[in-house]
Write a structure and sequence with these properties.
It is a single chain. With 380 residues, the chain is an alpha/beta fold. It folds into three domains: 205 residues, Nucleotidyltransferase, domain 5; 110 residues, Arc Repressor Mutant, subunit A (Orthogonal Bundle); 52 residues. The chain contains 15 helices and eight strands. Helix 4 packs parallel to helix 8 and helix 7 crosses helix 8. The protein is elongated.
Length: 380
Amino acid sequence: MKKVIAFADEFGNNSFDFDTQGSHFIIASVIMNQDELSEIQIQLEEIRKRFFQTGEIKSNKVSKNHKRRILILKELKKVNFSVYAVVIDKRKLFGEGFKYKQSFYKYLNGILYKELYRTFPQLELKVDEHGGNDFMRSFKKYVEKNHIRNLFAGSDFQIQKSHNDLGVQLADMMAGTLGYIFDELKKSDKSSEFAELINDKLFSLNYFPKEYKPEEFSEKATFSEYDETIATLGLNRAFDFIDKTTGNTPDNRDRINFLKLLLLYHQSNHPRKFTTSAEFVRHLSVNRQSPLSKERFSSKVIGHLRDKGILIASSRDGYKIPTSASDMKKYINHGKSIVLPVLRRIEECRNAILLATANEYDILDHPEYQKLKELIENVG
């Protein structure tokens, strides 16, 4: 796996005065390949000079100038980086303890540490200590206290002032843009356009607290085939796998990240829309020494998850969380189109040998083929 470097910054604060201080707290980590860092910094410096002249790349300098933000995001699309973000809806954090900064940051520190280091066990992370970034300073202390080097060999955590590092400035821009997408005080009629512009950069969005309400995903009004039972089962099993699985192997990290992408597309796409395997493979190949093959994706990710009981609808158009009986029928029909022809070929081979040996030799007459033999005879 290629060595990656990450730059993180925050949006929002610990205030629970939602009417004046905002509804969300967001941490954005910008992930880059270490060997591409010099080239990326050259590109970022050109963007900085063009849009910020002598100043830093800062989201608050763009503020509500949405046209300017759109122009900047269009230029950033050309730069090779990914965004791994944690989005906390403060309105759903029930408990008086969260109103105290120390308790609030302690909760978030644990979340960010778990999410980042189980996904990127070898990571150099740089954050901003400039200005009011209290959370990033508290996160540094948390990692210094809790980070176990022998479990995450090669990982590092560094503090870097933003005016010295364009990567941290980029993280500021991404965190701020996510704020203009999610925060109730920042949302506008341009939020969906911001989301579309950064969609290709999103490696993963991690929502907290992980509270699932079926009615929030219900598409009954626009999707007559929507089946709440199937959708709820599919979502709950995906969430359960993510919560209980650690990214201690590359395959497990691929499975976790695939399910997070699947959930992300489920929330952002029409419930009927499938996402191609090529799109998933492209996302999962980020920061790899060599791209993930479609064969490995199919067997080690999709196959393994289905073996664990995860419901994944599939068709010629790709994969999705199932939301209707029709989705499951497509999956069954797709499997049928693969399985039945193979069974027919085995049957033809068996019959030819039986005929040639006057029924004395049955290639399926072996204990390990008993179930296959029964299946072929029943299908026939």
